[in-house]
User: Fold Transcriptional regulator, TetR family from Brachybacterium faecium.
Amino acid sequence: MAQKEAPRSRSTRMSGKERREQLLAVGRRVFAAKGFDMTTVEEIAARAKVSKPVVYEHFGGKEGLYAVVVDREVSTLLAALERSLADQRAHPRVLMERAALAFLSYIDENEDGFRILVRDSPVSHSLGTFSSLLTDVAQRVEEILATQLTLHRYPPKDAALYAQMLVGMVAYTGQWWLETRMPSKEIVAARMVNLSWFGLSALQKTPSLRETSND
Assistant:
């Protein structure tokens, strides 16, 4: 009498949660390398060694998988930035240093995630895209700047504008640093804060453009 085939060991099978995490990890790598438009469910399924219906079962399709990946990256970066700005007793320059280093550290440790974030998102997300994330960060920086401007008798209404400038500088520099990785993130953070802090410390209360002479 033929022996029955031995049942598969359950330890080799993924639970639903494990499979979902695997698909997210695979999707994250593919989206980072190819972008949303060039990524297919077929490729994600093939790399995860599952059938296409498994991807649809967990996420409803490529859009759903992408949305979860982006939301996670936004949450991770925003949490790191909020932690860096949490200590209200710290000197404003120290807060700027912490925020710049937190941003560069996220890029350093989450290269795939950052590449995904800086691309325009084709779907709606509960936490928004990279642009809306920077808006959230700018609002936090605005609060800090408004307090400092008021203490030094500068117009606090300018805080929003300066916050946008500072966050924009950090975000753009971060994208450049992602490709160069030189110099170190600590040096880049120090240089950014050096430029922004000493620029802020020498602010004019009512700045104006200097007219150029045609003579």
Notes: Residues 16-38 form the longest helix (23 residues). DSSP finds nine helices and no strands in the chain. The chain has a mean pLDDT of 82. Residues 72-202 form a domain with the Tetracycline Repressor; domain 2 fold (CATH 1.10.357.10).
